[in-house]
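Run: sequence + 2-acetamido-2-deoxy-beta-D-glucopyranose -> complex structure.
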Amino acid sequence: MKLNFRVSLLFVLSVFSIARESGAVLPDLCDGHNLFMFFKDRKDWVSARDDCILRGGRLALINSAETHDAIKTHIRNIDELWNAAGGGYWFGLNDRDNEGTYVFEGSAGVELTYHDGWCSEKVGRRIVNQPNNNTAKNPDGQDCAQLWRNNKKKPKYDFDDAYCDNRKGYICEIVNSQDCGSGNLG
Ligand SMILES: *[C@@H]1O[C@H](CO)[C@@H](O)[C@H](O)[C@H]1NC(C)=O
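>> structure
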């Protein structure tokens, strides 16, 4: 109860009209100091990362249930975001440099500590846990993480490793953004 109250206080939905160079203007999410921006124009992971850098940010760092839940709720509550382009949104998590070691780009090597974010699904009788480094469509495996819609009718948006050259929507994060209302509460 106490936690829920804190979460709802922190994650105030903000609907800034920030000009976007491309694509529609979609509602942002603000956690009191960092601003999360959502994009539905499809890009591969590297292009998405570069676009976030151009905007003065990084691909989103999602390393807690609190941040993950706030982003999932935001996506599910907003019609334009609900159905991700390419079936998911790229964020900063990847193991491109070091197989099996998941870090967040643009964070000086912050490693994943929130492992509950990974998707776990039932396929027939089997439970498939992500990341599975699927090599079916690319022998190099999967090194970039998305928030995966997974189920069209009941979108999930849990973590899934995917092929970095797939083209998807993406989430940028502007750390300590001036557009984040009450400023830096951290
Ligand atoms: C993913 O698959 C690639 C290609 O088989 C392999 O080189 C790599 O070590 C695998 N990564 C992990 C974490 O198992």
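>> summary
Helices lie at 2-10, 45-54, 65-77, 79-82. Confidence is low (pLDDT under 50) at residues 5-10, 12-19.
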